[in-house]
Design brief:
five-stranded parallel β-sheet, 48% helix, 253 residues, 13% strand, Rossmann fold
Length: 253
């Protein structure tokens, strides 16, 4: 993937768009997504892995709540990756990830992912650059294995501005429905903003060989949801899926 400079990419919705019209389009896309997810599950020839990455308060939880709310829970799983446990740290960094990838017919969503091991660890210099470079290679091989095994990998970076992030973090301290999300560490991590931008840019450049990144403007949630829903629908439609007939089911036995 060509070099990306995040400072050159808008974090807000295109000004020409009509908010209400886009929200209606999103509603239509979500109905289509429901149909396609049912088809994906029935055909069971592909899996879909959706990776959500972004700075704190960029809206990862909102995507789960407002884009995937029409999807049948039977065919969808969400994994939120936190700091590795003591046991996980005793294995390679992909060990805890692979078990959560989707079987055929399923959509699995990662709220953060294996990319944390080339982001936060790079920013805080918990490992040296040689290890980070090797991890880029391991990630590419991992995503190659997934794609060649029938898993479609969709990666979304939720691109929020530093100013909008501050607004949302402040809301967590004043809105009782969001206060539970407040984490003092989120404010501390803001001090490393520039470092994170560089780490993300390096990940885009080095880890796009088998699954390209989608840079999603996130200052306006209504546009973020439309963007992701549209990409999901387009991707699933491109698989040219068909419902299996009686003969197909009989042949599986």
């Amino acid at each position: 993937m060509k070099k990306i400079k995040l400072k050159d990419i808008e974090t807000g919705a295109p000004k020409k768009l009509n908010k209400e019209k886009i929200k209606k389009e999103t509603g239509k896309l979500k109905i289509k997504l429901e149909e396609l997810q049912n088809l994906l599950y029935a055909e069971s020839k592909h899996g879909l892995l959706v990776i959500l990455q972004g700075m704190d308060a960029s809206g990862k939880d909102g995507v789960l709540r407002n884009v995937f709310d029409t999807v049948n829970p039977l065919g969808c799983r969400v994994t939120a990756f936190k700091a590795p446990t003591e046991n996980e740290l005793k294995h390679d960094f992909l060990w805890r990830i692979h078990i959560h990838t989707p079987r055929k017919g399923m959509i699995h969503i990662f709220n953060r992912s294996h990319y944390e091991d080339v982001l936060i660890q790079k920013v805080h210099k918990w490992v040296d650059d040689k290890i980070i470079e090797k991890r880029y290679e391991h990630i590419n091989n991992f995503e190659r294995l997934l794609t060649e095994s029938g898993t479609v990998v969709l990666k979304f970076y939720l691109h929020i501005s530093k100013d909008e992030q501050q607004v949302r973090l402040n809301e967590r301290m004043s809105d009782k429905t969001k206060m539970w999300k407040y984490n003092e560490g989120d404010l501390l991590e803001r001090e490393y903003w520039d470092g994170y931008m560089k780490a993300y840019e390096a990940a885009f450049e080095n880890c796009s060989e088998y699954a390209e990144w989608n840079i999603v403007p996130c200052d306006n949630n209504w546009y973020k949801e439309y963007y992701i829903a549209k990409k999901l629908v387009e991707t699933l439609e491109s698989l040219k899926m068909k419902y299996p007939g009686f003969k197909d089911m009989k042949d599986k036995k």
